[in-house]
Structures are given as C-alpha cells and as structure tokens.
C-alpha cells in the first residue's frame, strides 16, 4: 500500500472517529440542555438544542465522507 492509500485509509478512519467522538459530546449536551431547561434557562436550553442539531449535521457530513472513502 502506498502513502496515498494509507492517507485515504487514515482519513476514512478519522471521519468515523470524529463522528463517534461527537456522539459522546452530544450525550453531554443533551444532559445539560435538560438541566438548563429544568432550571428555567430556556434561552440556554435553546442554544444547546441548536448546538445538538449542528452536531448531528456535522456527523452527517463526516459519515458521508467516510462512505465516500470506503
């Protein structure tokens, strides 16, 4: 396998890793969004919900890139 092929393989693995890593952050965001909501911090909860949605979109792009590299 030449260097270019190794780079492509590594990039594919990184895209998957980054998406998985984002999922672990998402769990924390969800937890703290709910805490903010319970404390009446509605604007904070809304911002965290927006961040969660953006994280989902980011993962969609990362996983699509991963599939292109397979």
Give start-end ranges of low-pLDDT stretches: none
Strand content: under 5%
Shape: rod-shaped
Give me the secondary-structure category: mainly alpha
Classify the oligomer.
single chain
Q: What integer value in Å does the Rg equal?
A: 16 Å
Along the chain, the helix and strand elements come as: HH
Query: Sheet with the most strands?
Result: none
**How many beta-strand segments?**
0
Number of domains: 1
**What is the CA–CA distance across the termini?**
15 Å
How much is the average pLDDT?
Answer: 95
Number of helices: 2
Portion of residues in helices? Answer: over 70%
Q: Any descriptors?
A:
2 helices; 91% helix; mainly alpha; 70 residues
Secondary-structure blueprint:
Blueprint: H1 3-38, H2 42-69
Helix pairs in contact: 1-2
Structure characterization notes:
The protein is an all-alpha fold and 70 residues long. It has one domain. It contains 2 helices and no strands. The protein is rod-shaped.
Give a quick precis of the structure.
The protein has 70 residues and is mainly alpha-helical. It is built from 2 helices and no strands.
């Amino acid at each position: 396998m030449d260097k270019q092929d190794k780079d492509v393989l590594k990039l594919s693995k990184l895209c998957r890793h980054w998406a998985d890593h984002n999922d672990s952050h998402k769990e924390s965001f969800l937890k703290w969004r709910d805490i903010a909501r319970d404390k009446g911090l509605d604007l904070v909860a809304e911002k965290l919900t927006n961040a969660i949605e953006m994280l989902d979109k980011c993962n969609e792009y990362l996983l699509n890139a991963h599939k292109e590299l397979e």
